[in-house]
Structure formats: C-alpha cells, structure tokens
Amino acid sequence: MQPMYSSNQPTGNLQLKESIRDMIRLQKDYQLSDELFWEIFNTRVLLNEHIDVDAFLTDIRGTVGQA
Description:
The termini are far apart. By secondary structure, this protein is mostly helical. It contains three helices and no strands.
C-alpha cells in the first residue's frame, strides 16, 4: 500500500517551518506596516521564494527615504 502523501513532503514541511520562522523574526525584530508585512509574507510563504529579509528591508527603506 502506497502512502497518501508525496515523497517530498518532509522537504516541503522544512521549507514551511523556515518561512514561518522568518516571518516570526520579522514581526519580532522590525516594526513594519501591515502592507509591508503582507508583501513579504506573500513572497516568502505563499510564493515560497527565499528572500534575505534584512537586505529586502534595507532596499525598501532606502527607496522610501529617497521618495
């Protein structure tokens, strides 16, 4: 009898845990607007793209400071 889950599920679970950890750290370490938090959440968790949160925030703040 074959399992009902795919063989790559543990990898998916590890990626999900890592992305959740990133979001918790982001919420704890930075005072972000809701809009910015959800933009990062969409990229990091829903699209499962690995982003360097610190570099991302530095870029965003630099862009906002120039406007």
